[in-house]
Write a structure and sequence with these properties.
Blueprint lengths: L3 H19 L17 E5 L11 E6 L3 E2 L3 H4 L1 E3 L7 E5 L2 E5 L9 E7 L3 E2 L9 E6 L7 E9 L10 E5 L6 H4 L4 E4 L5 E7 L5 E5 L15 E3 L14 H5 L7 H8 L4 E5 L9 E8 L2 E6 L8 E6 L8 E5 L5 E6 L2 H4 L3 E11 L5 E11 L7 H9 L13 E2 L12 E4 L4 E4 L4 E7 L2 E5 L2 E4 L6 E5 L7 E6 L4 E3 L8 E6 L7 E8 L5 E7 L6 E7 L3 E8 L3 E8 L21 E3 L4 E2 L4 E8 L12 H23 L2
Parallel strand pairs: 10-16, 34-41
Antiparallel strand pairs: 1-2, 2-6, 3-8, 4-7, 5-6, 7-9, 10-13, 11-12, 11-14, 14-15, 17-18, 18-21, 19-22, 20-21, 22-23, 24-25, 25-30, 26-32, 27-28, 27-31, 29-30, 31-33, 34-37, 35-36, 35-38, 38-39, 38-40
């Protein structure tokens, strides 16, 4: 009996090995992948139900659902004081509204695409649910888009607000009557609105207060009162039996008779303060302000006493909100601590401009010398130290220097002396160099920067030379000798855009932009009437063109003002992305529309690439369907 147990055990083990090795090691074949979103089979209250007195909404589906994204996505309108509590119980989604609802009011719950099934994460697209707490059911609506006023990009997650109160102040301190949020295309719909006239706003709500109460919040407003529309929009119930494959979202967009466009902007607030300051160099102190510093800015050295009257040089950045204080007094450079008093303008609580003062201790700590560096320094103490020199930074290229560009020279610190007569420009003629007369000037904002202008000739060769000791800094250090060859770009390298603008009824700024998300401005031209403008000497690349309707003719884009009812200056885009090749001229006409809300730029290369990828994808799918 004892011998039979091992025999039976090994026989059973052999059976398992044989049967599992003969089986298919792959996953069992199943049916088609589930692509159907969850279906609502029961609701409390009913869809568009009336006289509901409860404070919970329950939605039962034909399968298990996930609600992780719902807490952020769900929008209840009219808005609640607190966020609703959301939980699931088996296949039922329960939304606890958490407060007593208003009488005879129609509530709308916008779930967007946040309800998904548990298996394949198929979303229930643009799902909305509504009910009334009284016998009446409001069915009016408003819809449209929220765009960035400066570049027409859609704004996702903006809060769109309706107020019965007509005063501007309602937007600042009162809870709205109806709300919605925009999707990734900037699209919104506020449904189940009672009849009447309303103020329409949009807000990037930084503190979730549903009010405009912070200076850095971005806002938009519609110029006049709006009247909700009475449209039969498609809803979830009507879609259940529909054979039309067009999405609910697309049907709702096409049903809008009058889309309301809201252009989002940030108001110009004056909120000045000293953000930061540092002295990480013996002769340089940096100050960083929140706003541009005005002419009233004052600086006073309290200690130590300088040895010379012109003990500093102030250098401003382009926006005047960052200052570089260069010390020109060697006594101050060697001082470990400087005490200074800064005076500048700020806005008080009533937005009145007043002066304020900061007293600062500015400490400089020399880097410590340790280990081998200290030993080497001790060994070299008896040797004469070389005189420090200064060198200029520049933008020169030995080949391909642009024919329209000026030479830019930048010293590492302010100069006490610079003899421009020691700067020479030569042109190579055959095998010899001939001196050329040029124009030279100092930057108006920075005494460290200098420019040289000369009418360059295509494909010619030049050389810039600066003699040694042509310049000295305030510590008495001379400049190095400088010599740089300059090769001018060939004419056939460049392209050109000629644009004929018509239909302009105001001042305008035409901007040539990089074809990037940042849209860096490369060139701009101000016009006041229909014009033919030219952008010459362009590198072969892709470009965008933007128009700013410059109503005050100040040469810059201006933001809006809510209290004054002033919208931000309107922006339009040329409808094509222009691709330029070397030695190529593009001529385009631009008949301006009265207004432009969409930023739909045609990129022919991208369209061809998308079509090619689509063909390749279709071919792969066909090939895969024929495979084993």
């Amino acid at each position: 009996m004892k011998k039979i147990f091992p025999i039976l055990f090994f026989a059973y083990l052999g059976y398992l090995v044989f049967t599992t090795s003969c089986a298919n090691p792959g996953m069992p074949a199943g049916g088609p992948k589930d692509s159907i979103p969850p279906v609502v089979v029961r609701t409390v209250p009913d869809f568009n139900g009336r006289n509901y007195k409860g404070t919970e909404v329950s939605l039962t589906f034909d399968e298990f659902v996930i609600s992780d994204q719902l807490r952020e996505a769900l929008v209840v309108s009219p808005p609640l004081v607190k966020r609703p509590m959301i939980r699931t119980k088996s296949k039922t989604l329960i939304i606890d509204l958490g407060e007593e609802l208003k009488e005879n009011t129609t509530y709308s719950l916008d779930f967007k695409d946040a309800i998904v099934d548990n298996n394949e994460k198929n979303p229930l697209e643009d799902f909305r649910f509504s009910f009334s707490t009284g016998p009446d059911f409001d069915s009016l609506m408003i819809g449209g888009y929220v765009k960035d006023a400066k570049n027409l990009e859609p704004i996702e997650g903006a809060l769109v607000i309706l107020h019965r109160m007509k005063e501007v102040e309602a937007f600042k301190d009162s809870i709205p009557d109806y709300i919605a949020k925009t999707d990734k295309e900037g699209f919104y719909v506020i449904s189940n609105i009672a009849s009447g006239t309303y103020r329409l706003y949009a807000l990037l709500d930084a503190d979730n207060s549903m009010t405009y109460n912070q200076e850095l919040e971005q806002i938009a407003f519609f110029d006049s009162l709006v009247v909700p529309q009475d449209l039969a929009l498609p809803d979830y119930e009507s879609e259940l039996d529909s054979e039309d494959t067009t999405s609910i979202k697309e049907k709702r967009r096409s049903a809008l008779e009058t889309p309301f466009f809201l252009m989002l902007f940030e108001e110009a607030f004056f909120d000045q303060y000293l953000e930061d300051y540092k002295r990480d160099q013996a002769n340089l102190i940096r100050f960083y302000f929140a706003e541009s510093v005005t002419d009233s800015f004052q600086l006073e050295l309290l200690r130590p006493t300088p040895a010379r009257e012109d003990w500093n040089y102030l250098e401003y950045n382009a926006t005047s909100d960052s200052l570089m204080l260069w010390l020109t007094d060697t006594v101050l450079m060697s001082a470990d601590t400087l005490q200074m008093r800064l005076s500048y303008q700020v806005a008080d609580s009533l937005q009145n401009i007043v002066m304020t003062t900061d007293t600062l201790d500015l400490v400089y700590t020399k880097p410590e010398t340790t280990g081998r560096r200290r030993a080497k320094k001790d060994d070299d103490d008896d040797e004469p130290k070389p005189i420090p020199h200064i060198s200029f930074k520049h933008n020169l290229k030995s080949k391909g220097f642009d024919v329209y560009r000026d030479i830019e020279l930048e010293a590492p610190e302010p100069l006490e002396f610079f003899d421009w007569s020691m700067v020479s420009l030569y042109e190579k003629v055959d095998t010899l160099e001939e001196a050329r007369t040029f124009e030279m000037w100092q930057d108006s904002l920075s005494a460290r920067k200098f420019y040289i202008r000369y009418p360059w000739e295509f494909e010619e060769e030049y050389r810039l030379q600066i003699d040694s000791a042509a310049a000295y800094n305030y510590a008495g250090h001379p400049s190095n000798k400088f010599s740089q060859r300059i090769g001018i770009q060939e004419e056939s390298y460049y392209a050109k855009i000629i644009l004929n603008v018509s239909g302009l009824n105001d001042y305008g700024i035409i901007q040539l932009l990089e074809n990037t998300d940042k849209e860096k401005v490369l060139q701009q031209i101000q016009i006041s009437e229909d014009s033919e403008i030219e952008f010459p000497y362009l590198k072969p690349d892709k470009y965008k063109i933007r128009l700013i309707l410059d109503r005050n003719d100040n040469g810059v884009w201006d933001t809006g003002d809510l209290d004054e009812g002033i919208q931000p200056e309107q922006v339009m885009y040329f409808p094509k992305i222009l691709k330029l090749r070397s030695n190529f001229e593009v001529r385009e006409g631009w008949a301006l529309p009265l207004i432009q809300y969409e930023k739909e730029l045609i990129d022919e290369d991208k369209e061809k690439e998308d079509a090619k990828n689509k063909r390749n994808s279709n071919q792969q799918q066909r090939s895969g369907s024929r495979g084993f």
